[in-house]
Design brief:
- The complex is a heterodimer of chains A (234) and B (247).
- Chain A is built from eleven helices and five strands.
- By secondary structure, chain A is an alpha+beta fold.
- In chain B, strands 2-1-5-4-3 form a five-stranded antiparallel beta sheet, sandwiched between helices.
- The longest helix of chain B has 55 residues, at 144-198.
- Chain B is α+β, with helices and mostly antiparallel strands and 247 residues long.
- Classes of the chains: A alpha+beta (234), B alpha+beta (247).
- The A-B interface holds A 43-45, 47-48, 50, 119-122, 124, 154, 156-157, 160-161, 163, 165-169, 172-173, 175, 180, 183-192, 196-197, 223 and B 18, 20, 166-168, 170-171, 173-185, 188-197, 202, 219, 221, 228, 230, 234.
Chain lengths: 234, 247
């Protein structure tokens, strides 16, 4: 049980620390506040996800990896609407995420802690914390991480509230060009194969995995018409 | 049910605002009914301010109490209004002598057979959302413990209502945020579909999508969503959207 006075204090401190900060810098603030090695902040819906902020290149790559594979702690935390914790990736997670774990370990990551971003009874995304050393978070770290995740969720909602209805907040619209290309490529493959865009993305993911390339690279080739997934030569 | 059991179950019922079928009128009806059962009061009525700040009768333990609350609103006088305005309890233990304070309300309450009244604010810290009125047929004071209990029940109900409102607001925002993200991504997917079918580049595909949306006086995002979802044939968009796609 989180002590409510301490919770209020941690929330107030984090709010103060991040007031007016661009959303892209929120994950760095999470790393500092929670004393972890890296953090990624992802907005999610049932069909899509968007990396809003990553504290460093590796955290960004780990998000990209999960998006490419469609597997990992962050999508699990969103799907289950509950924290997903793996304090020892090396010894505990082989069965859990068979394709995510080996490349994640290669980046030097040893622990992952994915926290859903709650808005009432909805979940709008996931805050994922990474650690270079194996081991559970301390009780206080675990408590604080839930509080920080709540503040992050409120911050994202309040920024979106400033935007006209139906339009994604400016701060959230500057998704990396590569992710836009992935969605464009999904549209192209959907037409090539006569399937829907969700299945098209799955095909792109499968092709990336089979050829050991990133989804972003494969998508760039599709958009540039250097690659088709319908078996014909481009 | 023993008093303690009823008390416990009432607190739980009043606190439970995170259920899907939460209904503020249900909640306040429970509050009014339980006050009559648990404290030394004969009737209860509740006023709550709506989004525009206008007080409305939200619940009452009897039709007579409901009419008495309405009477206060219509005449703009009475203990419930004062409790809401000040955020403090307003108590009168002998309505027979309250004619000067409330020239319209006091005689009407006496006529209904009520001799004393307790009006307690529905509040959380400095936020006052309404007031709970307890009417008694006997003049004089309620036991102090009863007043405290009624205020505690009112406090729990207030927290539940405020909590529910905050939750509902953030859920509406969450839905808007997720819808906006899906819409934005649908535009990229729609561009890819048009680009592939018409063999044009992404910029031209976007102009085609926009031209179609304008020609049909529709929002870009809803056209993209329909196209991606299969509700709108791709060829229709390309045919109608290519006329001045260069422009």
């Amino acid at each position: 049980m989180v002590n409510s006075d301490r919770a209020a204090q941690v929330a107030a401190q984090f709010r103060q620390r991040t007031a007016g900060l661009p959303l892209a810098q929120l994950s760095e603030a999470c790393v500092e506040a929670l004393h972890v090695s890296g953090a990624g902040l992802t907005l999610m819906t049932r069909r899509n996800s968007l990396l809003v902020s990553s504290s460093d290149g590796r955290s960004g790559a780990l998000d990209e990896l999960q998006f490419s594979l469609g597997e990992g702690p962050s999508p699990d935390a969103f799907a289950h609407q509950a924290p997903v914790v793996e304090p020892d990736l090396e010894h505990g997670a082989g069965d859990r995420w068979p394709t995510f774990t080996p490349p994640a370990l290669e980046t030097g990551t040893r622990g992952v802690f994915a926290l859903p971003l709650n808005a009432g009874t909805r979940v709008i995304g996931v805050l994922t914390l990474y650690r270079d050393t194996a081991g559970a978070l301390t009780g206080r770290q675990a408590d604080d991480s839930l509080i920080v995740a709540d503040v992050v969720a409120q911050t994202m909602l309040s920024r979106q509230a400033l935007s006209p209805s139906g339009v994604l907040a400016e701060e959230l619209s500057t998704d990396g060009v590569h992710r836009a290309e992935v969605h464009q490529a999904s549209g192209m493959v959907a037409v090539q194969l006569g399937i829907d865009v969700t299945d098209a993305l799955a095909r792109i993911r499968a092709h990336s995995y089979a050829t050991d390339r990133s989804v972003a690279d494969v998508a760039a080739d599709i958009v540039a018409r250097r690659l088709r997934l319908d078996g014909t030569d481009s | 049910m023993a008093r303690e059991d009823l008390l416990a179950s009432t607190f739980v019922q009043l606190a439970d605002s995170l259920v899907d079928d939460f209904d503020i009128i249900d909640l306040l009806t429970v509050l009014a009914d339980r006050c009559v059962e648990l404290v030394d009061a004969d009737a209860a009525g509740i006023l709550v301010a709506d989004a525009d700040g206008n007080l409305r009768v939200m619940a009452a333990s009897s039709e007579q109490a409901r009419l008495l609350e309405l009477f206060q609103l219509q005449n703009e006088e009475g203990p419930c209004l004062e409790a809401h305005a000040t955020g403090r309890a307003v108590i009168h233990t002998d309505l027979g002598t309250a004619g000067e304070r409330w020239p319209r309300f006091a005689p009407r309450a006496s006529q209904d057979g009520f001799a004393s009244v307790y009006a307690l604010p529905l509040r959380l810290r400095s936020v006052v959302i309404g007031a709970l009125n307890l009417f008694r047929r006997q003049p004089g004071s309620m036991p102090e413990a009863d007043t405290r209990l009624a205020q505690a029940l009112a406090d729990v109900a207030s927290i539940a209502i405020l909590q529910h409102e905050a939750t509902r607001e953030s859920q509406i925002l969450a839905d808007q945020l997720q819808h906006a993200l899906d819409s934005r991504i649908s535009i990229e997917q729609a561009k890819g579909m048009i680009s592939e079918r018409a063999q044009i580049d992404m910029d031209a595909a976007f102009r085609c999508l926009r031209t179609y949306a304008r020609a049909h006086r529709r929002q870009l995002t809803s056209v993209a969503t329909d196209l991606v979802g299969g509700a709108l044939p791709l060829d229709d968009v390309i045919d109608d959207g290519s006329h001045d796609a260069a422009g």
